[in-house]
Amino acid sequence: MKRLVILGSGESGVGTALLAVQKGWTVFVSDKASITQKHKTELINAGIEFEDNKHSEDKILLADEIMKSPGIPDDIPLILKAKGKGIPVISEIEFAGRYMDCKSICITGSNGKTTTTLLIYDLLKNAGINVELAGNVGTSLARQLAEGRKPDWFVIELSSFQLDGMFDFRADVAVLLNITPDHLDRYGFKMQNYIESKFRIAQNQTEEDVFIYCEDDENIVNELVHHIYKSNLIPFTQKDILKSGAYVTNDEVIINYNQDTMSILSQELSLQGKHNLYNSMAAGIVASVLKIKKKFIRESLTSFKGVEHRLEKVCSVRGIEFINDSKATNVNSTWYALECMDKPVVWIAGGVDKGNDYEDLLPLARKKVKALICLGTDNSKLINSFGKEVQVIKEARSMKEAVELAYQQGKKGDVVLLSPACASFDLFSSYIDRGNQFKDTVRDL
């Protein structure tokens, strides 16, 4: 009996453990942190051996294969030792994919992947397709397979960390939205390493498959010439007119696939802003590939409600609008958020810097930001970067303090925008915790 060791006991780890034991593997789960009581109960009930608050190297290195949590870097000594012994180290998507007998739509990108994933899922569901949601959002793919779910399609959001451990898995439809600097601390601060990680979304594709990508993204276009794909490549753009793909002209979004064309007025799309135009085009192409009726495509693209913590309007207080963009954990996400703003901005930013270069934000900050509230344990880089661009800069060490400072700086007709451009882990447990604290504090004003 083959032995699978799982490092990490989150949703993907426990889901993989439950699936693996069903498929006849001997399973051992190891977590350097505490395992939640809920997950401990699941593991005990399934007869799965586990440990927490440590990694027992002697037990782990007995593995035939290791599935590690996306949060665990590839270069820690334990992983390097395992690879040195020839033990394959894979991701949940790679393991679960072996037991999946339906088709998949896989979405990645530095920004917009959650919005696009949920939009595609909503579109398919509205059209009556038997579909489930997995990956970075919702329930893990492995757990759903363990529970016996058998949809016709899985819509799967994939981060670069999940893609790094993907080797044989094949996406029937792959969507690559954009590639901008993010998580460079995990890629040796080399952009090329990160680009190559994102391009794994389309590996193993055949002539029957589809690869949808943004033609306006320089990193994608420059990297594409180094790859030969058998799959059908379909671009989307806001700059050109395409024979096949999606583009914008005369305030309309045109989607043309297999000589079947449809159009939607840009102003009718439920998701507004330049970045969301890309997300809607990508989703529209996916729907066209799946031969979904135009009326369902139009209904979803014009009624979709959006994603919590991404340009989420919270409320207005005395004429000041508060927007929660906590999901903006990198510079490019925040660029899109600032680019969308048409009112004077009091901007709350900061957190764990992932090797950020703020240069692209300087023109927008100069033009739109009246005050910057730095929310983090170390705000020096933000202050040094924007000190000459923004007249008022304040520091905060809690969400309550940040919101109160922002409220003091704002006036009727302004917007307070939480768009951190950084990870959350210095002061918050996650971007969700950060966004929820923001919303709760705003409502208490």
Number of strands: 20
Would you tell me the structural class of the helices and strands?
alpha/beta
The CATH homologous superfamily of the largest domain is called Mur-like, catalytic domain
Please report the distance between the alpha carbons of the first and last residues. 60 Å
Number of domains: 3
Strand order of the largest sheet: 7-8-6-9-10-11
User: What is the C-level CATH assignment of the largest domain?
Assistant: Alpha Beta
Helix count?
17
Gyration radius, in Å: 22 Å
| Major sheet summary line | 6 strands, parallel
**How confident overall, as mean pLDDT?**
93
Protein name: UDP-N-acetylmuramoylalanine--D-glutamate ligase
Family: Belongs to the MurCDEF family.
Subcellular location: Cytoplasm
Binding site for ATP: 109-115
Describe the structure.
There is one protein chain. The model has no long low-confidence stretch (mean pLDDT 93). Strand 17 (345-349), helix 14 and strand 18 (369-375) form a beta-alpha-beta unit. This protein is α/β, with parallel strands linked by helices. The strands form 4 sheets. A 6-stranded parallel sheet has the order 7-8-6-9-10-11, covered by helices on one side. It has helices spanning 11-22, 37-45, 57-60, 77-84, 92-97, 113-126, 141-146, 160-164, 191-199, 218-224, 274-289, 294-303, 331-340, 362-368, 380-386, 399-409, 431-443; strands at residues 3-7, 26-31, 49-52, 65-68, 89-90, 103-108, 131-135, 153-157, 173-176, 210-214, 232-236, 245-249, 252-257, 260-265, 312-317, 320-324, 345-349, 369-375, 392-396, 415-418. The protein has 3 domains: 3-90, Rossmann fold (3-Layer(aba) Sandwich), CATH 3.40.50; 94-303, 3-Layer(aba) Sandwich (UDP-N-acetylmuramoyl-L-alanine:D-glutamate ligase); 312-443, Protein-Tyrosine Phosphatase, Chain A (Alpha-Beta Complex), CATH 3.90.190.
